[in-house]
Give the backbone structure.
Amino acid sequence: MPLTPEEPIAPVGETVPAPRGEPDPRQLERRLEELTRELEIKDRLLTGNLLQMERVAGKLRQILASMSSAVLMVELDGYLSEANPRARMLLNIEGELPILASAVLPEPLQNILDEVVGEGRHVSLDELLLEGRHGVQTLRVDCRLVRDDMGNPIGVLQILDDQTHLIHMERRLEQSRTLAALGEMAASVAHELRNPLGGIGGFAALLKDLLEPESDPHRYTLRIIDGVEGLNKVATNLLTYTRPVEPRLQVLDLRQLLREVLSFIQIEVEQARLPLELEIDLGLTELPVRMDPELMRQSFLNLFKNAVQAFEGGPGRLGCRVHQTRAPGGAARIAVEVWDTGPGIPENLHEKLYNPFFTTRAKGTGLGLAIVRKNVELHGGVISLRSKPGQGACFTVQLPLALEL
Ligand code: ADP
């Protein structure tokens, strides 16, 4: 730009004083340096704060990850922004967050969330039943609004605790207390019953031989013998169930034991001409298990007999499959599945089936599964059931694997 006559040209070595009212460039330079320094300090502070925040966030994430409770944070726009690993596992949540909460939360939890947002109140439930991946789960739920420093709501926090295991244990404890008392009484009644029953059965058998075959008195006597046999069975089962058992453990091949039980069942099915197909898959290797063979034989016989009886004479398939699995702690186990394509069992009965005297069969004693569970637990194992009405039943017995035969 050309110089104008008003602008004096400074001779070499002289400086032109700044025109009055205009900022001094040297002052400006100093100010600039000061500001740059201030900026650098603030920048360092900010970086420090950010690092600090990242550390705090990291710690929070670690705390959330190590919590046994499931923790979920849902923003007010309905998006799930946080779900710790326990929550992801419990509710089967996969993929990146945020995601629309209603797309991943089961309906009852979404309803609670809506209630908390809509009415601004805290909801706490001791037992919420949820259909999960592994059956019905019992959850304790705590759901509340989260507010900022000014008291404005910024989201909803949902904390879930899986109580399924605890509730099962409580029920089992209660059950075993009742059983202990009941057992004592039942054992003495059964014992008292067996002697007179033996007499009645014996005399009825003698009487039958004296009567003319096919006559009415002969038929009545047969009915008496039948009834006595039934009562004897109940008394024997009762004694088996209530008697304290000391298992005689030895390491044996469970595969061999299952083969024996299955061949017995096969003969029964064939003799009764039942239209049932047996599918057996016992794997290719031996299955060493520390067991009392008598108790195990009795247990698997009960399970297979139940499977046969489930068909009530109709056609179907039943089978046995074996595979290796691990206990929650990591110990190796053998899982034996006893399955059938029968009528299945409604979910609300699954726990009751193991109660002594629970039966839906006219000739049942209701002690079969109670004995199976007792035996399996005596061996450090567990029994579980997968079944729905119309879709057959599958009882799985898991037993600890022994090192070798
Ligand atoms: P019981 O056979 O004398 O009735 P259990 O304890 O063995 O006694 O069985 C209890 C009940 O469980 C049976 O009455 C039946 O209702 C049910 N159950 C057991 N196994 C099966 C099965 N495989 N399919 C359908 N229902 C079953």
User: Anything to note?
Assistant: Confidence is low (pLDDT under 50) at residues 1-14. The chain has three domains: 62-162, 167-244, 247-405.
